[in-house]
């Protein structure tokens, strides 16, 4: 393996750290276990987690494209 | 008897039955081989895999049990959402490695990998038995979901369930994994249509989300024990550990492994981790049905009836029929995949390892097909012969058990440092400790409080047992390595874990 591709592999590894963000954001309930602010009457506790479904999916998508190896 | 709902239900059920049998010809392969019958020839692309895994992981039981839990205790039941948020980033890390090594070596089950990696039939047997034991009650619970909707339409007795399951057993036998893959399309389209209608119609009918949550909050505060709309402080740790533990365990369930290994490429697996969260969003809405049922004034002692009763109360009969069909078909897909996964484990890691050493591919496939029938009969017996509560208890144990295979499988995908006997002992202690915690709780909850001096931590028993398991495996590996235990031969090399296509 060349120096170049080694470096590339290492930089693509760094992208994987993005995947840790959803864990921190959703596994610490003191962040979000509130009623207010509500969104269309939905308590914060619920819409915050719905929002993270979307953010986590986007982050995973970003990591997928960033680490994709050309076949 | 609700004839309108029943007619819609029967038409849709008949449609998927026909599809189940036709599926044998789809992407035609030699179904007398286990790789074809049990993994669909590893030919499923991104879209089929998405439907298959979605249909596989978000089961009928989920649609019944998650809202039921919300209905009973409020916010705590919503842990299913963070659970499905974090499972995909986690699986993104290790699942592609499992796919690659399995493709490279023709592994069909996680236990195949364990045997190749650690050169240990015993550890492989332990993982296989854990998988089969955890899967059986899970299949039975799919029947519980089906029973709830059939009952809601006014059909009583066990015979509708027996007929539905016999049909399922026959087309799984003939078509293998292709059947649930094809039926998953219908199931998911139905589910999405139902959810789309519900999310628009229900808030209008019940006076807006503000009113729904307000009314539900009042209803929850009258429950014993009291429920609440947001988590009280003591519930933080249980909520987080339940979500984390369940997320780590999910992709080690045999049916999830089978679904993932049937993908045609490593890219397909990765891409699905970014797109499967669409199902998680839907699951969140389904969970809120429990809140909506509270606001709608649904009354029942049997919480598995919450969702069916809500539909019958708020929607026209024909639409309830569609929703019920979606749930019942939603039971067929995972039940089929689970029985196939259990059969794969039995055939490869028990039958082949201990009974007939070198079966022909045809022989292997025949054994798997017969075992899949046996598994389904067993599940049927569970639901009809013994109280449903046992199946629910065992399913709770199943989650705890599956977590005990994490050190061997997930860590094994990264390192060969752990000693096979250390892993085996860690597994055994974890199984014992996890089970005894659940028993000590009287199976009422999987949250168990442990005491360190003054400190009390209430956490998911599976995770607690898993940590103990991991510590034992680590310490014993250090000891065994110092004693120069023979490490066996590793059949895999580092490059195997990164293979794109062969």
Task: Describe what you observe in this structure.
The complex is a heterodimer of chains A (71) and B (502). Chain A has one domain. Chain A is 61% helix and 0% strand. Chain A contains three helices and no strands. The longest helix of chain A has 24 residues. Chain B is an all-alpha fold. Chain B has a single domain, classed as Sodium/glucose cotransporter. Chain B has 21 helices and two strands. The longest helix of chain B has 39 residues. The mean pLDDT of chain B is 88. Chains A and B meet through helix 2 and helix 3 of A and helix 5, helix 10, helix 11, helix 13 and helix 14 of B.
Percentage beta strand of chain A: under 5%
At the fourth level of CATH, the homologous superfamily of chain B is Sodium/glucose cotransporter
Care to count the β-strands of chain B?
Answer: 2
- Computed over alpha carbons, the radius of gyration of chain A is 17 Å
Counting DSSP E segments of at least 2 residues, the number of strands of chain A comes to 0
Low-confidence stretches of chain B: none
Alpha-beta content class of chain B: mainly alpha
Sheet with the most strands: spatial strand order of chain B? 1-2
- Indicate the mean pLDDT of chain A: 83
